[in-house]
Amino acid sequence: MLFFNHHCMKGLMHRTLAINHIRDIPAKYRKTPIGLLLEYHNLNRSFQPYSQARLLIGMCMDSRKFLHIPDNFAFILRTGGANLRYSEFKVSYAIGVGKVSHIALIGHNHCGMVHLEARKEQFIKGLIRYGGWGEKAALEHFDSYASMFEIGDETDFVLSEVKRLRLRYPKVVVAPLFFKIEDNRLYILKEK
């Protein structure tokens, strides 16, 4: 079930910056791993070989998203809703051991981690049917974890998570990006 309408798409357009040319990439991201990500994915930049990751990408586990990037260019953490709150050790590892100094946090529209309560019945029935769970265990599982993984509005969540990561890792450049399912393109989320 998708919670989406024309009004949502129109509102989303005002919150995103399209990247159709190199000049559309904000100066602070040009000639950085974040700018390169945008060039590779949106502008079909020719791939360079990489022997070490230059970037950490945090993105949703949703199967509808695929990034057009070279091998070894980035560490990628895929979690529901691009929620890195419960993957912080992995983020720290990519920074401390992997030596990345840039993070691209990528949210997307039509995210399943939005309005989780509306999917409660589907979640429980699915665990029973496909996972072999009992109804009581499936219900307790949902009730125990749904609030931890509910992200609310996709764009608001990405912007708040970017702020949190910037405070946690002050030397790391963290960029809020957005993937639109309809056109398979990355956009920059506008910050206030």
Structure write-up:
With 192 residues, the chain is of the alpha/beta class. It has a single domain, classed as Beta-carbonic Anhydrase, Chain A (3-Layer(aba) Sandwich), CATH 3.40.1050.10. The protein contains six helices and six strands. The chain has a six-stranded mixed beta sheet, sandwiched between helices. Helix 4 crosses helix 5. It is globular, with a radius of gyration of 18 Å. 31% of the residues are buried. The N terminus is likely disordered.
Offer a few descriptive terms.
192 residues; 38% helix
Beta-strand residue fraction: 15-25%
- The chain-level structural class is alpha/beta
Largest sheet: 6 strands, mixed
CATH superfamily: Carbonic anhydrase
Q: How many individual helices?
A: 6
| Order of strands, widest sheet | 1-6-5-4-2-3
Number of strands: 6
Residue share in helix: 25-40%
SSE arrangement:
Layout (H helix, E strand, L loop, with lengths): L5 H10 E3 L14 H11 L11 E5 L14 E5 L9 H9 L5 E7 L11 H12 L3 H15 L4 H15 L4 E8 L4 E5 L3
Parallel strand pairs: 2-3, 2-4, 4-5
Antiparallel strand pairs: 1-6, 5-6
Quick rundown:
By secondary structure, the protein is of the alpha/beta class. It is built from 6 helices and 6 strands. The longest helix is centred in the last third of the chain and has 15 residues, at 135-149.
